[in-house]
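Re: weekly structure request thread

Next one in the queue (517 aa):
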Amino acid sequence: MKGTDLRDLAGRPVVIGAGLAGLATALHLSPEPVVVLSKAPLGREASSGWAQGGIAAAIGPDDDPELHLADTLAAGDGLCDPQIVGRIVRAAPQAVEDLMRFGVRFDVTADDTLLLGLEAAHSRRRIVHAGGDATGREIMRALVEAVRRTPSITVLEGFEARRLLTDEIGVSGIIATGPAGAVLLSTGRVVIATGSIGGLYTDTTTPLGSIGQGLALAARAGAELRDLEFVQFHPTALDGPARPMSLISEAVRGEGAILIDETGRRILQGTPGAELAPRDVVARAVARHLAEGHRVYLDARKALGTRFARRFPGIDASCKAVRIDPAGEPIPIRPAVHYHMGGIAVDGEGRSSVSGLWACGEAAATGLHGANRLASNSLIEAAICGRWVAESIAGTVDHTHPRPVFFPTPGKVDASTVRPIISRPLGVVRDGDGMRAAVSALLPLAEGDGPASDPAAVALMMAVSALSREESRGAHFRSDFPGRSERALHARLTLEQAFEAARNLASETSLPFARSA
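Done, posted below.
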């Protein structure tokens, strides 16, 4: 932003977040001027760049978008929006072409056709990869370069959005912190593309700074959030002391690797789908075995052996950094938070319940993922929905006027006190007692103005949603309600409703937020 006067940016759309969803939105808005806020230097700390898996698109000769649709609906366990899923899977092949146009170099076969991989719960090989296990890194490389050479995009690096300002019409500005302190951006068009909530947990494969700040921004502006209880745990994170944890991609199991314990016994023997069962099934099986005192390993020795390093160079390097050679020994693993299916409730254009506020990527709840994301559907969702949001914004005009010079200066944000409160109660297996204790501990933090306030507010909304879902569905499993309800309902709530529910919890008052079919 060298030489940029922030006053000159007034009225432009502002994209908060610089991962795949945010950069795709900015690029598709071109040539309309747009501002991108990036907390870190562009291309760093975005969850998109860490994605080892690929992009799901029905482009193989034996595949069809309707098969992709069926697989996605099955994984979503009754909570997907079939219309949204249909739109996305049919748009996926074109989105892959768009990414290639932006400069993404996907892996190809000897005859120069896209190389397609298989991942869990997909009925066909439809996963497009780049660099074997470096798809996210390659996508981010290409999009960052495309953004750098697009003159209509102004990137403010080192800026973190802390509050949305609203007026009687809707969003009217953003308070952000930057290298020189707090600043105000006047705009009536904001896109939240801030990614994950994984940093709220102790065991996570996401950047530790991904603590749901975008959800907090939307919630404190009065937006409705949806399906917050559905957190996907990747079953195979490298079990070691490092945080965040290194991911061992599902594609390794797609190539034939198996899960064993310290005795060599295959722990998913007899499970439908075995290693390629839905992620929630595999994660619970691993967590259960660990709870019984065992170790669990991913064994690729027979399936890949000496080919491991060539097929998965990034994973091979992560393992060897802790003195594990996947070609000759099994890899110790455990489940870790990997993806959040819930988020800001949006319509088919990415619009939230607050005028002037859009969301896309992992921060949004579009209806694609339902109760359990199908592997590799997230990157394609971010690419497609970034385009839809851009098209929606392109038809709007800014309504804002210059704001006062004085505005509140936000304090620091710190999620460290939240992690021990929710990591177990909102983990792979949940129960009412644990979640009620979490709600009680989170409420005073969320209502306060300390460093944990925003992370605690997001965690509180997640806990209230999870506590209200008295069933087990998809990634949400309750030991006290192991059955599945006949009706598939969405939990929708605002921050004020979450506060009210938490305050009334002691008197067992009904949780007062809306549910919709």
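The longest strand covers residues 331-340. The two ends are 46 Å apart (CA to CA).
Next request, please.
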